[in-house]
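Notes continue from the previous slide.

Worked example: a multi-chain complex. Inputs as given:
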Amino acid sequence: MAKESMKGTGLWTTLAVPIMVWTVLPLLWMLSLSLKSADTLADPDSAYFGNFWPKEPTLDNYRLIFTGGASDLFMPALRNSLIVCVVATFISVVLAMFCAYAISRLEFRGKKMILTTALAVSFFPVVAMVTPLFEVWSKTGLFDTIPGLVIPYLALTLPLSIWTMSAFFQQIPWEMEQAAQVDGASSWQAFRKVIIPLATPGVFTTAIITFFTAWNDFVFAISLTSDQARTVPAALAFFTGASQFEQPTGAIMAASVVVTIPVVILVLIFQRRIVAGLTSGAVKG
Amino acid sequence: MAEITLNNLVKKYGDGFPAVNDVSLDIRDGEFMIFVGPSGCGKSTLLRMVVGLEDITSGELLIDGKEVNDLSPKDRNLSMVFQNYALYPHLTVYENIAFPLRLSKGKFTNDEIDSKVRMASTMLELDEHLERKPANLSGGQRQRVAMGRAIVREADAFLFDEPLSNLDAKLRGQMRTEIARMQRRMGTTTIYVTHDQTEALTLGDRVSVLKKGVLQQCASPRELYDQPVNLFVAGFIGTPPMNFLPAQVEGDELVLPFCRVPMPAAVRERASGKDLLIVGIRPEHIKDADLGDVPANGVRFEAPVDQAEWLGNEQYAYIPFTVEGAVKDKLDELDKELDGEGMRTQMVVNLDPRSRVREGDDANFVFDPDTMHVFDPESGDCLTRDDAKAAELAQQSEEDRQRALERARARETQSA
């Protein structure tokens, strides 16, 4: 028994180590580049592997994006990113919650159609939508505004959110809600006090999917914004070096590190919540 | 405390099929009422109509004389234990039980909630589990939490939907007596749905037998057993079930597969002109004639024993016989209605364990024709039902119930 589990562990280690290296190395590289000075980055002699970790780490790049020359570009972009993502996530989760609840609990005409349409929408290639959207947005005044980004993100994330959430709702036994109603809960109370807590893993999954989609999006951000509503991924493209001969690598990397932090925090908070089997013990089983 | 009145309740689903058809019933204050029947008879639907989880297609549902047809479940002040318990898995046992109290905002202070929850948990012996989540409880514990949640609130009535069907046999027996004790102690009107006739007979002050959405008979367990109104009730109540035999009318006698019986007076009146009837004899009413103790007017007959089962406290003997024609069709139909498998071609006899009947041999049996039931094969009605006796049984059971309630109340005031 013990031998077998040892064997299992060995197998997993051999599989896990390359995968971890493969995923973590770029992040480390990003961090190391962000800590190197512009001179080191430009120096071809220092481009060898032994120099992976900076010999003289400097926070210059961070100073540059927070207070220095790039801060005009970066700080508003960071603010925009946060606003756009939080708003889009909130709206998406709330809408998806109600929609998925209706889909999993009620019988109505066109239920299947809603689900298939939602799926079909998410098949649409993003690049194909950008140009027409740009036209419409410039005509309607949505170009370079926060709602102008929130709306396409909702369209992008809602289908997946609805599908995920209805799967979660369907796992919750009907009796839960009926029991709550008999116990004296209104439909809203039953939904809020029983259904939502049970669907928490679903809610958080959806929230994370939505947040990341919006946070990482480049195509919409670069096409539908100018300097007012530009988010971080788009802003990075506009970073310039100190002179035209210098690459802004360090600044870009520093900005990337900064925008990675919320993602890491989110995952750390939510991974505890995304536990399966929360409904176990509800009914006989 | 409430009286629940069902007036001509009908439930029709989309396809127009009535799952509950014209059920009228008067459930008295403090009464323990059972809905029983084979699967698909509409008993659960009826219960869910009372609690408000199913709409009422037509008819009237009154709680203490007030119509509640259109009230939502939360406004009916009834509490319910679901078949699969439906506990809230994200809440502790304590919070599960407190849930209904917390919902009635401002009605209870935290201290009141606490004392009520602790009272319920003590009653159900859940004290040591209060901080656990339902997932970590055994089936019986979950069941008790579900009951705690139901009794903690001063609901007008308790509704149970097959609450014991998920428990194993031993626990089921314990919980059954526990439910009976609790109901007497609290004196709360209770409706209990089950397909198990042991539960039905042991728990119920009265039992409502349903078939295909239609109420067949609502009576005390004794009356159901001794004075069934029709073939269905007679066949449903009792284990092993009542034996049904074809009976040819010849003059003033009924000809059964193994013997002739004088026609009971009541049957002569009610079945004039019919030449074929169905006779029902309970397995325990047929005795081994060789053991002595033969009733004066007993009818003796000899029959081959196909199989004998000795169980220590009793003994079953199986006697095959053949049925043909209209009676066979009727009995097959009945068997199907009772969830049977169409194998009813033998008579079951419940004998004294001392009996020495042997497999493969003929044996002498005797039965008292007064205990025999005679049914009309077309309508299924019982022709031997004695209304006077039935009324007497009903009155007795009502007196028993009142007495039990009074005693429970007296005990309560004494301990208070």
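Summary box: Residues 276-282 of chain A have pLDDT under 50 and may be disordered. Chain A touches chain B at residues 173, 175-176, 178-186, 189, 193-194, 197-198, 200, 278-284 (CB under 8 Å).
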